[in-house]
Design goal:
binds dihydroflavine-adenine dinucleotide, single chain, eight-stranded parallel beta barrel, 12 helices, 303 residues
């Protein structure tokens, strides 16, 4: 990232929320369940599957986690009624991971129980490294009790390739992504090429062990390497899926669907859109530059 882009990214916290909202709208379906269902209908019409995430993370009070759990329960009922190809993603800290082990287990068990009844798959998102081990243990316990539960692993973490062993033993459905949080070099690869290679190694290890992989990336290098593995192993399209974020590279989404691959779009919604949207903007300084220009009244950026 250039020095200018770093400055742009550093200035995001002081930009008025209304302006961030205007640009960040593309990454979030809206504030309500109805907004999310309507986005899912459009995506399903394009041949995509969907995973919903109710925005909210790192809460500090038990009541907040119970409110999040209840929103997930309402969401599961709405999905079941809609008949759309939708599953759910949950951030463990939104339901209590950083507060209390029993609390997070109870909340997630309630979500998984309802999801199993409705035939809906539940994925635990992977957050920053203090939560890696806790999230993996929860996912293994939940899949043993309920089935139909998966987790995400981050290719930037040095530990992830080895973490796959436990998940493969449990025949877990794993989402492989690069990872989005700021981590120390002691535990995380920093070189983008090394992260791409680790991503490819994780996809190869997981699908060649006969496990279902969700290949979550917009990086053509990761996609090409995954496709080469899929081709070499002669896998049918039901052995894996690609996943992409709402608002990022819709053309690539259409290319993959057109080529006969399963593709799921991650659709976040909810009132708590700010933290999620600013993470997306920090990832993409080109878009963040538009936000800064709008704030300064400079008109559209030329880059
Ligand atoms: P990379 O960042 O190199 O992006 C490749 C190209 O995609 C860019 O050149 C750009 O064109 C486009 N692009 C990427 N991000 C963009 C953006 N914000 N706006 C516009 N264009 C953009 N992380 C995590 O730590 N835990 C998790 O549980 C998840 N879950 C998850 C689910 C799904 C479905 C996806 C797709 C991603 C995640 N992630 C995640 C985020 C992931 O770790 C990663 O940060 C982003 O996907 C960006 O990495 P890419 O592999 O796309 O490559």
């Amino acid at each position: 990232m250039s020095l200018f882009d770093r400055l742009v990214v550093a200035s995001i916290p002081v930009i008025p929320r209304a302006i961030v909202h205007r640009v960040a709208r593309r990454y979030v379906a809206g504030e309500t369940l109805d907004d999310a269902i309507s986005a899912a209908r459009t995506l399903a019409g394009e041949g995509a599957m969907i995973t919903f995430d109710i925005l909210g993370e790192s809460v500090t009070r038990a009541e907040q986690t119970e409110a999040a759990r209840d929103e997930y329960l309402r969401l599961l009922s709405a999905i079941a009624k809609s008949g759309l190809p939708v599953n759910v993603s949950v951030k463990p800290t939104a339901v209590g991971l950083s507060i209390d082990q029993d609390l997070v287990r109870r909340n997630l068990a309630a979500i998984c129980r309802r999801a199993v009844e409705a035939g809906i798959f539940v994925r635990l998102d992977m957050e920053d490294s203090p939560h890696t081990e806790g999230t993996l243990r929860l996912s293994l316990d939940l899949v043993a009790e309920f089935g139909g539960v998966g987790v995400a692993l981050q290719a930037y973490l040095r530990r992830s390739l080895a973490d796959l062993d436990r998940l493969i033993r449990a025949k877990m459905n794993v989402r492989i992504c690069k990872g989005i949080y700021r981590e120390r070099r002691e535990i995380a690869y920093k070189d983008p090429d090394v992260i791409v290679r680790n991503f490819a190694a994780m996809v190869e290890k997981h699908i060649s062990a006969g496990c279902y992989a969700a290949i979550a990336t917009h990086d053509e290098r990761c996609i090409q390497l995954a496709l080469a593995t899929i081709d070499r192993l002669k896998l049918g399209p039901d052995a894996y899926e690609f996943q992409m974020l709402l608002g990022v590279d819709p053309l690539l989404r259409r290319i993959l669907i057109g080529a006969g691959h399963r593709l799921r779009v991650y659709v976040p919604y909810g009132r708590d859109w700010y933290a999620y949207s600013t993470r997306r903007l920090k990832e993409n300084p080109a878009i963040a530059r538009h936000v800064v220009n709008a704030t300064l009244g400079l008109g559209p950026s030329t880059t």
